[in-house]
Write a structure and sequence with these properties.
Shape: globular
Distance between the termini: 31 Å
Helix content: 40-55%
Length: 85
């Protein structure tokens, strides 16, 4: 039996690619969505790190919701595990 790949989504704002434009929350969603899109065929779960979303304030909660929605759209059979410490 093969292992199930879990993809961590840790959108550190200072490390996001330069080509992503917009406010931090928009850039966060674009970054996460790109990762989800590129790994949907092999991932069984996605694990957004809540600290990075919480750091964006209220916009971060919207970004988290959009990220979870992207998982549901792009990788509908994958689970979402919220990583909170």
């Amino acid at each position: 039996m093969g292992a199930i790949l879990t993809v961590g989504l840790d959108p550190e704002p200072t490390r996001l690619p330069a080509h992503l434009v917009g406010a931090d929350a928009e850039r966060t969603v674009a970054f996460c969505r790109a990762i989800i899109d590129r790994t949907a065929a092999v991932a069984g779960a996605y694990k957004p790190n809540l600290a990075f979303f919480e750091a964006l304030g209220l916009d971060g909660w919207s970004a988290l919701r959009a990220t979870v929605d992207a998982v549901r759209q792009l990788a509908p059979t994958a689970s979402v595990i919220l990583d909170g410490k």
